[in-house]
Amino acid sequence: MRIYMQMTHTRVSLFGAAGYTGVELLKLLALHPQIALVAAASDTNAGKPVEALTGAPLGGLGFCRTEEALAIDADVALLAIPPEPAVALAQQLRARGVKVIDLSNAHRATDAAEYGLTSLFGERIAASSLIANPGCYATCVITAVAPLVRHGLIDRDVIVAAGSGVTGAGRQAVEEMSLGEMHDNVRAYKVLRHQHVPEIEMALNRLGGPVRVVLTTHLLPVARGIFATINVRLRGAATSEQLTARFRNDYATDPTVTVLGTPEDVSLRKVVGTNQVLVGVASAGDLCVVTAALDNLLKGAAGQAVENLNAVIGVPRTTGLTHLARHA
Questions:
Q1: Whole-model pTM above 0.90?
Q2: Nearest CA to 2 among 79, 63, 71, 78?
Q3: Least packed by Cβ within 10 Å: which of 76, 200, 204, 301?
Q4: pLDDT grade for 2, boundaries at 50, 70 and 90
């Protein structure tokens, strides 16, 4: 195993480097001007060159086992692994002074970590040693609803119907994720029990709340992307133009959120392959509909993790992300 190191840069280790999100992180970190990727851990792919999954070499870096990666000095660790091992690894790494960005749901909606949605909580992230990277659905819904909650414009309930591409479930060889089952098919899953609801409610309640989120998720016959349609009742009548102006003012300085003219303007095709969230809002009296879309593997996971990494090391938020296409 060869290690690609630039000791003048921040040393980063990546655990879970061979999953869908892990591979996206490998590609992003390879082009990050302030990062030296010192370890890419994948027990099932240990010994293989990284290019076997990325399609391009990464300074001769090869996949290694978790134990090997733990033995390599790093400043920051990214955990793209399931929740239970993430808890154990985070404890070991932090005990050695390594800052941790956890992409699992182990530390979300808890007081143990800072919630890593940079659009809303960027100033608090930089000072934290444990950052919980938001979920993909959560990033989409929170971004779409935040201006309404922050300004006290809605009643309690936030009703969400959202769909995700199959990569949102990670790499798993199960029949229900096969092409034969997914082609020309849409189905709901985890109805009234989705794991992202607590973190969505936590983040929105921090902005003003209280809110109650009802999230119905659907599996879409596409590889990647999330599209959400959100219905809320306003506390008072507002026009679509007024709400759009409010959204644009709130996100005027955010390089990752684009507020489009109408909800109909938002689409997956415009956002997949980018680190953007697209949002559109409309109203009729006191009824309001917001649509939002993002790439679940980028802004919903790896891209957001790089934003958190940038906050930790004190560089501009979009460093290492500006090469991603922006279609909107």
A1: yes
A2: 63
A3: 76
A4: very low
